[in-house]
Specification:
homodimer, 402 residues, alpha+beta, L-amino peptidase D-ALA esterase/amidase, Ubiquitin-like (UB roll), 2 domains, seven-stranded mixed beta sheet, 34% helix
Chain lengths: 402, 402
């Protein structure tokens, strides 16, 4: 598996285009909509927010994914089309029809995503202009513009692509994503669009995407809030040639591994660009009774405000980590717990070790910090990626009206 | 029910004493241990942290509460005696024996509580000095000193007392508490000690204290972390005279109501003094399918970092509130949700209203803010108390080593 350039346009048969339609700012100086198109019919799979409050486009896209065929994804930033009632859903249908007409694809194969302010109806005149401009801008080199157009509070665009050698020749997988963080007025959301020129049946693609999402995008946190718009979509158009990849084959496994690696790389990029983040923290839990227990412990440490402020303060605070593990809901014997911080065991079998405080403090100063929590219950393991909680996080999320 | 002075010494037959034993600081200039004593035998009940990692004194006190009789509570601040292994438990037993000897009560009726730095063995020579000094200082006027001695990161001592008229004469209930917040090195913890001169059977007292704790101390959050030492204890010595209060009588109900009100007042004081808190926020949920669903929604909003930073920023951000309700795990129809902020309906039936932004912003500037989330599922209701998330919170919890 090699990295390649091109993002969502790296796989064969995909084009993308972006435009500034005045949705983010009235002057129309910032890219705020993007279209990703497969030139050939493609299977589609999607994973969506579990929030009870779902934005209108999420409801629409869930329906498209049930159909299993998807040719086009239209995305706007600047307005989330959430909490907009029946009008919001009507607007999504209108956008899908506009895209279908502009790109000459069936309306039932058009996916629509929105991110931005919530509770405000979409400016449909500008959306229409945006669809037309994106269609006109479609190009095999359009991936980078699309990655920029979907940003809200992100400070850097995120795009990745890999090439995977399979028995019938290489296939490619590409992604663009935008980060999670604050909601209104700049409602952010996790959006990720993945393209591949491999061929997969929709049901196989859906099962695989769900597994990858569970292990990557569902293992990150910046502020623990699940937005109304979170969406991961994957289009597979088979343009690399060869027969569909089927589960149980070596080719399928190789593809699955590459897709998960790409999702992990993308998810980590979202955490690295988390609001106010100064550090990237990986929490690994080993030795839990089950993988689920390991997940609970890893999540609890990753989400703890006290642990996250300690990471910001570069404080090797094993007490907060042990405490967060203890209230995670996982069942374990505290006297069998150890904590390893960047390779240094600071807590062993339920007690602090006689580690050198200066040594531990020096390791905490690194920009990427790996924390291992070792239990003595079984073989359960899990990882979670998180950011620290900084003054800037509070400023970004509290002070924007001032 | 009237407020009275005296804290834990307001009820008849209770004395308290405090001392500076050099546990908080070597110079011994700050009160850091306290003893609360009932002159007569008393029933005892306790509610303890659900953290898997429990400090040694918690394990000891749970045993005392099973016995149901408790005469003395000895508390130190400055050292939590948590993650200290077998030695920690031996130290608790030694302290209980010292208190039993100094106060002339059975060792099995001595409760021990600790709060402060974790992972460091107790300085037993100083603890011994502290026990002796507290016993010597015992006085019916000692409640206020005890309230000060148990403080760690608290900025104000917390003590409350009420008098409740019953058919056989008035009884009194008193409390002192210390707040929750950061862990090591100044591990904080929620500790609350309640005394009453009413008479109750231990089993009735335990059931009542559990219900009150569930509705008050378990409905507050500052940073969502559950410490290794959280403890609520209640001693009932019957010195007001009269026969024991029994469930199903009007007197028992009046006592129960007063105890819950006292616990609520104490719990709210902890939130008001939350680390870095600039505001007190009450989240009320009505119209949920069940009380449990209402609890989930109230907790989700109260714990959301995004909502808490919005409260700090005095931003009437209904989007974050709706979003946190949506991912709470409670089952409800988002199109039946409304949000009322300090009496102003800013979100109704799933849509923002056309409220005046300036009006909403002005209401957010109040020091105490009431948020009501109205659902249309049933009669389930719940309340939760929380603080805002400020720059000072991050500073207090990240910067103390600098």
């Amino acid at each position: 598996m090699n990295s390649v350039s091109g993002g969502v346009c790296a796989p064969r048969g995909f084009r993308a285009g972006a435009a500034a339609a005045g949705i983010k700012n009235p002057q129309g100086t910032r890219l705020d909509c993007a279209l990703i198109l497969s030139d050939a019919p493609a299977a589609v799979a999607g994973c969506f927010t579990t929030n009870r409050v779902k934005a209108a486009p999420v409801l629409w896209d869930q329906g498209v994914c049930v159909g299993g065929a998807g040719r086009a994804v239209f995305v706007n930033s600047g307005n989330a089309n959430a909490c907009t009632g029946d009008r919001g859903l009507d607007d999504v249908k209108s956008i899908a029809a506009l895209v279908a007409s502009a790109a000459d694809v069936p309306v039932t194969e058009v996916l629509v995503c929105s991110t931005g302010v919530i509770g405000v109806p979409l400016p449909m005149d500008r959306m229409e202009r945006g669809v037309r401009a994106c269609a006109a801008a479609l190009s095999p080199e359009g991936g980078a513009d699309a990655a920029r157009a979907i940003m809200t509070t992100d400070t850097v665009p995120k795009e990745f692509a890999v090439e995977v050698p399979l028995s019938g020749g290489a296939v490619r997988i590409g992604s663009i994503a935008k980060g999670s963080g604050m909601i209104a007025p700049n409602m952010a959301t996790m959006l990720c669009f993945i393209t591949t020129d491999a061929a997969l049946a929709p049901a196989d693609l859906q099962a695989l995407l769900r597994r990858c999402t569970e292990r990557t995008f569902n293992r990150i946190c910046v502020d623990n809030d699940t937005s109304t718009n979170d969406t991961v979509l994957c289009l597979a158009n088979g343009q690399a040639g060869g027969s569909p990849l089927t589960p149980g084959t070596a080719d399928f496994d190789a593809f699955a591994e590459a897709l998960e690696a790409l999702c992990a790389e993308t998810a980590k990029a979202l955490v690295r660009d988390g609001e106010g983040a100064t550090k990237f923290i990986e929490i690994t839990v080993e030795g839990a009774a089950t993988d689920e227990d390991a997940r609970l412990v890893a999540r609890s440490v990753a989400q703890s405000q006290l642990c996250k402020t300690a990471f910001f303060g570069e404080d090797p605070n094993w007490g907060r980590i042990a405490c967060a593990a203890g209230y995670s809901g996982a069942d374990f014997d505290p006297s069998g717990m150890s904590i390893v911080l960047e390779g240094l065991t600071i807590f062993q079998d339920g007690r602090p070790t006689d580690y050198e405080e200066a040594d531990a403090a020096a390791r905490m100063k690194r920009r990427e910090v790996r924390v291992r929590v070792l239990l003595s219950e079984g073989a359960g393991r899990a990882a979670w990626w998180t950011s620290d909680l900084s003054h800037d996080y509070v400023s970004i999320n509290a002070d924007y009206r001032s």
